[in-house]
Amino acid sequence: MNDRDAASAPPFVTGYGYTVHENASLLDRTTFRVPARAATLIDVHEFDAVPGLLAEAAQRGREVLVCGGGSNVLFTRDWPGVVLALRTRGLDIVEQHAAGTPGDAALVRAAAGEIWDDFVHWTLAHGLRGLENLALIPGSVGAAPIQNIGAYGVEVGEFVDAVYAYDRTANAIVRLDRAACAFAYRDSLFKRENGRYLITAVDFLLPRARPLKLDYDGVREELAAMGVVEPDTRAVAHAISRVRTRKLPDPVTTGNAGSFFKNPIVSADFAAALKGLHARIPVWPQADGQAKLSAAWLIETCGLKGFRDGDAGVSDQHALVLVNYGGASGAQIWTLARHVQQCVLARFGVALEPEPLVV
Ligand code: EPU
């Protein structure tokens, strides 16, 4: 089909399991809250509708972008194709493993459109452990494996048993076990092969007995401040929610996508050389012999914490978070992001890589 045919093709029409909005605002669809429009926005409630919608979009020559909770995307322009917003719901315990044995765990299946934080609390209420440190992360279940969300010493990939996804190359639903997902720091197969997989559901293997992870800076202190002497998973989730609320700007009031940059991983030699020049620089040695640096520290040391250009800014609460104070466009935020990258590169010789998808 040529461009003229695509332009004159009949519009998408709402059908079973999905709702179509033409020329739709995306402002309320992403946590950055920047003004952008999609030529077509489709809310999908039944995953079965997806293959047909993809085929229809292909026939019309329209490019498809998949959006979950919109907490990890920055639109710097309008999207001329189709945005699919996956809103499928469903939480199930699909398998119970023997109670009281080392394999005492449950296999839980969550649909991609479930809200991550609600899901975390649902697992804790069912006596399952592991996700408590990942409380209050914005976004959906389906987005969690894409960037292997992590916080306070835990990464989600550790608990993922398998991901179910529609593979746009094979045109079929596939099951990818944890090894196939190739999880790494804020990275996975889904991020590397951007656009190929549409995640439909995620299976988590969650233990009933597991020591709490309280070693990350500030977690024990928060529990003590709450007067908790013997913490359980729910107290930990509560403590972490309190720390996050205090340290990170709330996307409900100030548009943002959490950390805008990844913490850079560099060679041990390079990290040692930087440490020689800047004694206070935080350096976390990695299992593979490399070293992780604190992007927030690099940005703050460049004097950029709280820096503001119009309504685009570097948060004054946390230097790793870029914020929209109200009227910033995605392009303005992206201009600010490049300024931050240039300053850090010039001062420290370190290239910062964005964490969200920049459209
Ligand atoms: N720091 C600064 N200035 C700041 C903030 C932090 O210099 O404004 C330095 C301090 O030395 C601090 C260190 O950075 O000790 C680490 O700060 P923090 O504990 O906040 O962690 P982070 O490395 O900046 C990562 C994740 C966050 C996650 C926290 C807590 C990435 C890119 N970010 O941030 O994840 O919540 O650890 O586990 O790995 C996200 O991905 O959106 C996110 C918020």
Task: Describe the protein.
The chain has 359 residues and is α+β, with helices and mostly antiparallel strands. It folds into 3 domains: 84 residues, Uridine Diphospho-n-acetylenolpyruvylglucosamine Reductase, domain 2 (2-Layer Sandwich); 117 residues, 2-Layer Sandwich (Uridine Diphospho-n-acetylenolpyruvylglucosamine Reductase, domain 3); 104 residues, Uridine Diphospho-n-acetylenolpyruvylglucosamine Reductase, domain 1 (Alpha-Beta Complex), CATH 3.90.78. Helix content is 26%, strand content 27%. It has 10 helices and 20 strands. A 5-stranded antiparallel β-sheet has the order 6-7-12-10-11. The chain has a 4-stranded mixed β-sheet with strand order 1-2-5-3, covered by helices on one side. A hairpin with an 8-residue loop joins β6 and β7. The chain is globular and about 65 Å long. The N terminus is likely disordered. It binds uridine-diphosphate-2(N-acetylglucosaminyl) butyric acid.
Structural class: alpha+beta
The percentage of residues in β strands lies in 25-35%
The CATH architecture of the largest domain comes to 2-Layer Sandwich
Name of the top-level CATH class of the largest domain: Alpha Beta
Strand order of the largest sheet: 6-7-12-10-11
- What is the helix content? 25-40%
Number of strands: 20
CATH fold field value of the largest domain:
Uridine Diphospho-n-acetylenolpyruvylglucosamine Reductase, domain 3
Mass-distribution shape: globular
The first-to-last residue Cα distance is 25 Å
Low-confidence stretches: 1-6
In DSSP terms (H or I, runs of 4 or more residues), the helix count works out at 10
Task: Tally the structural domains.
Answer: 3
